[in-house]
Amino acid sequence: MTLTPAMAPLDPFLHLTRQQWESLALSTPLPLRDEEVERLKSLGDPLDLEEVDAVYRPLSALIQLHVEAAQRRHVRVTEFVKTRPEHTPFVIAVAGSVAVGKSSTARLLQVLLERWPSTPKVELVTTDGFLLPNAALEEHGLMQRKGFPESYDVGALIRFMHSIKAGICPIDVPVYDHVTYDIVPGAVQTVDWCDILIVEGLNVLQPARLSASGQLTAVSDYFDLSIYVDADSSHIRDWYIKRFIDLQSTAFANPLSYFSRYADLSETEARETALRIWSTVNEPNLLDNIKPTRSRATVILRKGHDHRMKSVHLRKG
Question: Which fold has domain 13-315?
């Protein structure tokens, strides 16, 4: 049976190849330099100026269209209801798996968006700071499920997002240390007044769940635009293993590192260990929790095996 256009499944996304996306590139203020890209990219992410120009500069221009539209709508609404306009940041989510490159995406967007005259102040917060401390994870038997939705203090994260959208600032958020693999006691990141807030994390697009107070609440309720960095799970697995091996001579070599016990493994042992961690922790989290939220994103950036963007998918409307 052949589907007619009227019978074809509805698709909420506009699908663009890399070539189509590149053709949309608009000039943006102050393009980055090689050394800036090198500083911003994550370990194992082969990001360069060509990728920034082809993918991320057009993305920053698209985001600016959304920001400007939101600003105009806000002014019109406050005029209509005859209230004083109060500034609240435009909030962008960046979601995706471990090792897919979402941190590089978030950091790049922060720098690029700051170069637009209408959004000179851009803050970046990662949800790692809202992970439960290791002691609490151990107490509740969740240490092997770190990064899963239940390993976060979701209530604190939602309170933070609520305050941001209420125009309350400055706000202090906890700090996570990737060396000790734990929340730093007493340390905070102060989020001050800003035009745009970027929130980066594994599970930020999770749908609403019933809270203890009987309310259906979700972090994603507070996002104005969301980006999901996507790739085949087999590619992400390979990137994770490569990053694990690369970390042996860098972060793992630090005696204070939670993973210092892996620093002296042979390459074969390191590969086997990384594959075991991927298979028992990161892949189940990706398949069960992270990837199912992909369709909730405004923009999906789809990477190929070489870590470079091969297509972009935009939510219609």
Answer: Rossmann fold (3.40.50)
Confidence check: pLDDT of 43 > 70: no
Q: Is the peptide bond before 149 cis (omega within 30 degrees of 0)?
A: no
For residue 253, what are the contacts with CB-CB under 8 A and spacing of at least 6? Answer: 260, 263
Phi, psi (rounded to 5 degrees) for 166: -85, -5
Higher pLDDT, 308 or 213: 308
Q: Residue 59: what are its φ and ψ, rounded to 5°?
A: -65, -40
Residue of 146, 85, 167 lying closest to 284 (CA atoms): 146
pLDDT of residue 215: 75
**CB proximity list for 246: less than 8 A, separation 6 or greater:** 43, 44
Strands 196-200 and 209-210: unpaired
- pLDDT, tens only, 93-127: 999 999 999 999 999 999 899 988 888 899 999 99
The kind and range of the H/E element at 176 are: strand 171-177
Closest of 32, 41, 228 to residue 113, by C-alpha: 32
Q: Report long-range pairs for 303-307 (Cβ below 8 Å, ≥24 apart).
A: 303/100, 303/101, 303/229, 303/230, 303/231, 303/235, 304/231, 304/235, 305/232, 305/235, 305/238, 306/46, 307/44, 307/45, 307/46, 307/47, 307/101, 307/231, 307/235, 307/239
Phi, psi of 187 (to 5 degrees): -85, 140
What are the DSSP calls for 84-108, one per residue? Answer: ------EEEEEEE-TTSSHHHHHHH
pLDDT band at 78 (very low <50, low <70, confident <90, very high): confident
Q: Contact 316/12 with Cβ under 8 angstroms?
A: yes
Q: Strands across the sheet with 122-126, in order? A: 13-17, 309-315, 299-303, 225-230, 90-96, 196-200, 122-126
Cβ–Cβ < 8 Å for 188, 201: no
